[in-house]
Each structure stands twice: as structure tokens, then as C-alpha cells.
Amino acid sequence: MGKKIIVGNWKLNKNLEEVADWVDGIKIKLKKVDFDKNLDVVICPAYPYLLGMVDLLSDTNIKVGSQDISQFEEGTYTGEVSGKMLSEIVSYVLIGHSERRKYFKEDLSIIKRKVEKALVNHLIPIVCISDKVWGDGLPAAKYNEKFFLHQIKNVIKGLKPAEVKKIIFAYEPPSAIAKQKHEIGVGHAADVNKVIKVVELIKSIVPESKVIYGGSVKAENIMSYLSNNIIDGVLPGSASLHAQDFGDMIINATEGLSGLH
Ligand code: PGA
């Protein structure tokens, strides 16, 4: 079984004091936990905290990622943060989360440009693949195989195999994403057998890429997603906000995975 990955997404949450508390909390929680052998752990705070988090976490094995990246390289694009800037600070970037697609009207061409900017700047893109259609000209459906294939093919079109291999795809059904702020497990995590089927479908197109799952993942259910050879990791949102819960996820995954080896 390859190394799995846990990517926490804080979304639009936390102030400076809460960031510092989280870092203190996670360090205490994981003091004696040697997760690095079986797990990559990434946390994605809002832009203003990236640099500070990298610094604060430099004595841990937790890596920092960005929640977004500009589709532009540089210039007259007020408010944007480029791949070049990010590459000096972080190594991972989330792209095309369903919330960005919904609230910021990101379409497949924007997602494609963002993936290209990430790769050019040696960032690892974590590309979210949704089973909902956001105005990309295809019929809406709860789960639409054609749309899946279309999204992935759009992302990898024109890329070299070595670049495709670097991309992590995240299957994120919006119906499973917790809607309420700071509440864990209020969403309905997708059935693991369904997730495995979808991940297999994605891997039929990108067999060398990692494919992870996101939607109401928490300490209690994390191992149901990680204990197979198909799903390469998880992308928790609400459960990553609290150091205790995020730490419990890492501990459960570390213990669960070491038992499988
Ligand atoms: P959730 O969010 O874990 O709170 O459901 C997942 C996500 O949106 O990435």
C-alpha cells in the first residue's frame, strides 16, 4: 500500500489567535505520533496565515498547502496570488473546490489554467472533482460518469505523463460536504463502496495519480476510507478545524495503517 495523504481544508475560518492555538494543540497531540512513514499530512489555511504556519510547523512533519492559486502568472490582477508566490512558501494547492465553482463561478477552463500554473511552479495540484455540474454545458445529474471523465480529461489534456502523475485528484460529492461551520459530521459521508467505485473510475483514466476522497471525513470514519488499496487519502474540512479532531484523525490513520502493513 502506498503512502496515504490527509489534506485539511480550513476554508474561510480562524483568526490569528485561533491559528496559534491550533498549532499548539496539534503539536501536543502529535508529540509521540510518528505518522510520517505511512502518511503525508497537509493543512490548508487562508492566504494570510500561510507563511506563519510554515514557520510554526517547521519542527513537525505537517506540510502547508494553499486553498487556491491564480490562473494568471503576474501583472494587473488585483487580489490574486500567483503560483510563483505560492511556490516560495507551500508545496500543495487545492484547485477547483466545489465551493469555488459554486460561489466564484470557476469553470473547467479556469481550473485547467490553475493546474497548469501550479505545475509550472512545481506545486502539487489537488484537483477537486465533483459529481455536480456547474454550468459546464453538460446535463446535471447526481452522479454522472460522463461528466467525471470530461472533468479529468479536461485537466490532463496536453500534459505530459510525468505531470499527470503529480496531480492528486479529490473526489468530493457536494452532497457529502458538511454545510455547517465548525460542526463535524453534520454531512453524510459518502458510502465507502460508492467512493471506491468512483475512485476506480477516475484511476481508469489517470492510473498513476493519487485519488482521494472528501466529504464529512472525521476520526471515526477515516479508516473506512483508508483501509483499502484504492483510495489514497482524504480531504477533511470541518474536522480539520479543531486540533484535537485533526490529531485524532492522524492518530487513527497512523495506528490503522501500521496494522495493515
Ligand atoms: P467537510 O468538507 O469535511 O466539512 O465535509 C470537506 C471539503 O469541503 O473539502
TrEMBL record:
> Where in or outside the cell?
Cytoplasm
> What broad class describes the main subcellular location of this protein?
cytoplasm
Q: Which Pfam families match?
A: TIM (PF00121)
Q: What EC number(s) would the UniProt record show? A: 5.3.1.1
| Reaction(s) catalysed (UniProt annotation) | D-glyceraldehyde 3-phosphate = dihydroxyacetone phosphate
Q: Which Gene Ontology CC terms are recorded?
A: cytosol
Biological-process GO terms, alphabetical: gluconeogenesis; glyceraldehyde-3-phosphate biosynthetic process; glycerol catabolic process; glycolytic process
Q: Which GO terms describe its molecular function?
A: triose-phosphate isomerase activity
Q: Which UniProt keywords apply?
A: Cytoplasm, Gluconeogenesis, Glycolysis, Isomerase
Q: Carries keyword Isomerase?
A: yes
Which pathway does UniProt place it in?
Carbohydrate degradation; glycolysis; D-glyceraldehyde 3-phosphate from glycerone phosphate: step 1/1; Carbohydrate biosynthesis; gluconeogenesis
As for family, the record states: Belongs to the triosephosphate isomerase family.
Q: How does it assemble?
A: Homodimer.
Q: This chain belongs to which protein, by name?
A: Triosephosphate isomerase
- List the taxonomic lineage: Bacteria, Bacteria division CPR3
